[in-house]
Automatic annotation (TrEMBL):
PANTHER family: S-ADENOSYLMETHIONINE:TRNA RIBOSYLTRANSFERASE-ISOMERASE (PTHR30307). HAMAP family: QueA (MF_00113). Transfers and isomerizes the ribose moiety from AdoMet to the 7-aminomethyl group of 7-deazaguanine (preQ1-tRNA) to give epoxyqueuosine (oQ-tRNA). InterPro entries: QueA, QueA_dom1, QueA_dom2, QueA_sf. Its EC number is 2.4.99.17. The keyword rRNA processing does not apply. It comes from Croceibacterium soli. The gene is queA. Pathway: tRNA modification; tRNA-queuosine biosynthesis. The lineage of its organism: Bacteria, Pseudomonadati, Pseudomonadota, Alphaproteobacteria, Sphingomonadales. It is an enzyme of class 2 (transferase). This is S-adenosylmethionine:tRNA ribosyltransferase-isomerase.
Length: 343
């Protein structure tokens, strides 16, 4: 499909630079299939919007401070780690990459160093970190939270972002972007959902910085997705399959959870254990296998994620929903408001 079909105008003032407090007070646009009117609700209304027996699926990845600023000689070098290769090596997008060649050493703050081992076809580098401490320890010392470019371009990252840009489910280190739909959840909301008979499950997908990359191709078939590592264990897959068999709906909280669930499901719509990389790219025409709904924030024009929600609900339906959200002053992107999509 033509990428320009997924374009829309977003006023800059609709981009949220901070989350609302409490987290579950964010607005939520409910979009159902067919011609049902849109409903303007709050995330805290979720227990009354779902049914007993439904299951919410969260991503328990934890964002690491993967943004580094360093120097190679006189040159300033910025690195955003986006995929772990092994214990000491990460693939990274590099700013000022023309000043870097394989074999060069980059000096980051606090005595952290890395060798640029290899340049990849997409312009990224493999960075091999020195020393014996785990790379995650080095990042806690020298790195900052990798806020999305549309936020980082408007204000500096600060200490508050270390809390704000992490979900209550975060426990598996490895993401360089938050699974932002889950930022809206609080322990109180989770308790209310459980009381209403709505279950919760977790999986792990380490979100990469590729999620921020623009689609430069003119047609979706020419776009190459970056792969990300994920895992669903056998017990979780069994519980999700049992819930659907009993008439419950599987509601993915965030596009990251959705993409991993769809990667793990077969043509028979059975979710199986999964561990490894996925580069699934969901566009209109895709037949969903694993999920019955999606809770997600509002996405960028011409992004792979707006393509995904258009595949779930229909392009015209999502164009109308986003026009409604803009007209009614919803807050967009990572720190913004939410939507509940039930096809």
């Amino acid at each position: 499909m033509r990428v320009d079909l997924f374009d829309f105008e977003l006023p800059p003032e609709r981009i949220a630079l901070r989350p609302v407090r409490p987290r579950d007070s964010a607005r939520m646009l409910v979009v159902e299939g067919g011609a049902a009117p849109f409903a303007d609700r709050r995330v805290s209304d979720l227990p009354s919007l779902l049914r007993a027996g439904d299951v919410l699926v969260f991503n328990d990845t934890r964002v690491i401070p993967a943004q580094l600023e360093g120097r190679r000689g006189e040159a300033s070098i910025g690195a955003t780690l986006h995929k772990r290769i092994d214990l000491r090596r990460w693939q990274a997008f590099v700013r000022n990459a023309k000043r870097l060649k394989p074999g060069d050493r980059i000096d980051f703050p606090q005595g952290v160093t890395a060798i640029a081992e290899e340049r990849h076809a997409d312009g990224s580098f493999t960075l091999a970190f020195g020393g014996e401490e785990p790379v995650e320890v080095l990042l806690e010392r020298a790195g900052t939270m990798p806020l999305p470019p549309y936020i980082a371009g408007k204000r500096p990252t600060d200490a508050q972002d270390r809390e704000d840009y992490q979900t209550m489910f975060a426990r598996e280190d490895g993401a360089v972007a938050a699974p932002t739909a889950a930022l809206h959840f609080t322990p109180e909301l989770l308790a209310a959902l459980a009381e209403a008979g709505i279950a919760s499950e977790t999986l792990t997908l380490h979100v990469g910085a590729g999620t921020f990359l623009p689609v430069k191709a003119e047609d979706t078939e020419a776009h190459a997705m970056h792969s990300e590592w994920g895992r669903i264990d056998a017990a979780t897959a069994d519980r999700l399959n049992a819930a659907r068999a009993a008439g419950g709906r599987v509601i993915a909280v965030g596009t990251t959870s959705l993409r991993l669930l769809e990667s793990a499901a077969g043509e028979d719509k059975v979710i199986r254990p999964f561990e490894g990389d996925t580069a699934i790219f969901i566009t209109p025409g895709y037949r969903f296998r694993a999920i019955d709904g999606l809770m997600t924030n509002f996405h960028l024009p011409k992004s792979t994620l707006f393509m995904l929600v258009s595949a779930l609900m229909g392009l015209e339906r999502m164009q109308a929903a986003y026009a409604h959200a803009i007209a009614n002053e919803y807050r967009f992107y990572s720190y913004g408001d939410s939507s509940l999509l039930i096809p």
